[in-house]
Amino acid sequence: MNKPTLLAAVITLALSGCTQFAPNYNADLIITNGEVLTIDSNMSIIENGVVVVKDDKIIAVGEAELADQYRAPKQIDAQDGIVMPGMINTHNHLPMIAFRGLGEEGISNRLFAYFFPLEGEKLSRELIYNATKLGAIDLAQSGVTTYADMYYHMDEMAKATKEVGLRAVLGQTVIKFPVVDSSAPYGGIEYAQGFIEQYKNDPLITPAYAPHAVYTVSKEKLQKINQLSKQQDVPVLIHVAEFPNEETRIKEEHQANSPVEYMDQIGILDERVVLAHGIHFSEKDIELVKKADAGVAYNPMANAKGATGMAPAWDMYRSDVRIGLGTDGPMSSNQVDLWRTLSYATTMQRLKHDDRTIMIPEQVIEMATIGGAKALHMESRIGSLEVGKQADIIIVETQSANMMPNYDPYATLVFQANPSNVDTTIVNGQIIMENRQMQTVALDDVRGTIDAMEADISAFANELAKKAIKSKSLMD
Ligand SMILES: [Zn+2]
């Protein structure tokens, strides 16, 4: 055997020796060395687990050895961090981040005497686009991968959300008075048509209707929206039972016992609806919501800050109602991420029931992930780390002082973690943030526009606050 032939034989032997260890399957991304919270139906946790992604989907989840079966151009070592589904914020008005920190002087009639006039004066297409970009970066940096929103000019929100790379259910507001995107009352219905048409088959954006509330939208328009949502198969997002006097008003105007009973009576409570708040739900309301298979967004931090009450979230959870967590808008809870909301979800329910055994951390994390997916009727696609689901994944580091020790990952997440512990955020298979570095839109890209916006809003907002503080009535 001459030398080249010998060399060829050695190479062949070496290669054949390797093939039995070589990875068999192609993937795009392999996450290794993490404590994987799958949030599957058994709430399985995999120590030193692996998650494999191809295109926009999760194709394998399992023990460390699983990584050997796959080859991928990108590997992420989670370094003992917690690997979990991205969190789902089920209720927001993200562009109000432009006004975050305003109107905190103790205004009683904050919604009507402050929010609405401020929006009337300052909202524009441009502001909605720029503010959404800032908000979406804030969400991505804190581990929220899907959010549901009710606002105006939803096409601008969709554009900014997609640039950052998040998933969203975007509800075009319908309300009985003229607003920024409609000079006529109820113009939101027509606006929604175009928006739904444009985004109906988008991989990240789910277009929706958002009738503001049962007291700001007529019965006829609510029924029309219900009809359209059925025809177009899109969700309907609505505020319900947020204020105590909603009930009195519904009784007077529509002879129904509660906003939910009213919705049921006029035929608009169905499986496409997501009810934001539900603070003043009766037992019967919970039964009706359950029967209709509607979703509920529980916003404990916003409800505490606004002193609007404590929703019967534990009762809904135990009754198997589709319930997820939300923050409400950035003027209501000032944070768009869910970290503090996790803790409020627990503490508010324990205080309400005078019972420290309820709403344990595992249940709260369930609510923030698969619970949110269920509330938005998206549980077949998102909310857990399981084969076939969309690859919406976050890695929460456990090396910072506030994350140590980490005996029970659910308790660590609910009671110790904060947004800055989120290390990596992946949506639909795309890495949005890695090692705290944004990969899509950087904060520096929006800083200039946000500074200019702040300068423009400041003086008007302060004058408005002086007037608003004298207004007493809650809902007029
Ligand atoms: Zn709201």
From TrEMBL:
Q: Molecular function (GO) terms listed?
A: hydrolase activity, acting on carbon-nitrogen (but not peptide) bonds
Q: Where is the signal peptide?
A: 1-22
Q: Pfam families, from UniProt? A: Amidohydro_1 (PF01979)
Asked whether the UniProt record includes Hydrolase among its keywords, one would answer yes
Amidohydrolase-related domain segment(s) = 82-431
Q: Does the keyword Zinc apply?
A: no
The record's annotation in Gene3D superfamilies points to: Metal-dependent hydrolases, Urease, subunit C, domain 1
Q: Which InterPro entries match?
A: Amidohydro-rel, Metal-dep_hydrolase_composite, Metal_Hydrolase, MTA/SAH_deaminase
**Coiled coil feature spans:** none
Keyword terms: Hydrolase, Signal
Q: PANTHER family, from UniProt?
A: AMIDOHYDROLASE-RELATED DOMAIN-CONTAINING PROTEIN (PTHR43794:SF11), AMINOHYDROLASE SSNA-RELATED (PTHR43794)
Can you tell me which family this protein belongs to?
Belongs to the metallo-dependent hydrolases superfamily. ATZ/TRZ family.
Protein name (record): Amidohydrolase
The species is Vibrio renipiscarius
